[in-house]
Amino acid sequence: MITFPNAKINLGLNIVSKREDGYHNIESCFYPIPWYDSLEVIEAASFGFYSYGLDIPGDSNSNLCIKAYELIRADHDIPLVEIHLLKNIPMGAGLGGGSADGAFTLKMLNNLFELGLSHSQLEAYALQLGSDCPFFIKNQPALAKGRGEQLEPIALELSGYYLAIHNPGIHVSTQEAYARVKPQIPPTPIADLIHTTKNEWKEVLFNDFEASIFPNHPEIEQLKKEMYEAGASYASMTGSGSTVYGLFEEEIESDQWKSIKL
Fold this sequence. Notes:
Blueprint: E1 2-3, E2 6-18, E3 24-36, E4 38-43, E5 48-53, H1 64-75, E6 81-87, H2 97-112, H3 119-129, H4 135-138, E7 142-145, E8 150-153, E9 162-166, H5 174-178, H6 190-193, H7 201-204, H8 209-213, H9 218-229, E10 234-237, E11 244-248, E12 258-261
Parallel strand pairs: 5-6
Antiparallel strand pairs: 1-4, 2-3, 3-7, 4-6, 7-8, 9-11, 9-12, 10-11
């Protein structure tokens, strides 16, 4: 069985408060985009995980695809499998690629072995993998709160727009991203801002991490400026960076930016 985990972008991202468990409460709109990895799961005589494409740093045993399989197998009698992952979505880039891979593994195992798990059950497994993993179970535009796991579907349609997107290859650690962030309750919730006209987003919809990251990495800020100069209706860094995207009403030709029709 083969499937294609996709990336996501953040439309606005507010750091609302610091939690007692060390995490932060956020407020954001998650939107799925058509930039894909390729994931195959097949029954096998012995378990194996194989990755191709972009190099995945760190211990492969910590990969979320493997952890997803282990979670399901702990509760359900499923056979051994081989997992093959073709990695196209950059890692640690604010695009949720690793989270999507883990969540899609859960969904594939559920379908492949006819486990009959509901969306809510799959989301509970996904939350054990990471805060934004549950989003990829239903994989539809949603307002995200809490750590990112409290999801509310939202009627938001960006089809017809073109997305210019670029990852400059700058690694931004979680510690660095939160270093200058001052949690605060925003004057207007993203749930309200997202329903303003898209041409107004530039003035009202922000990613709080930009204030923390741009001073250390002016090249990321410059990339956002270049997208506006090229005519973007809206541009932003996604997640905690370092990927920047711009929404355009017409297709943009660029050797630097990846162009995706939404």
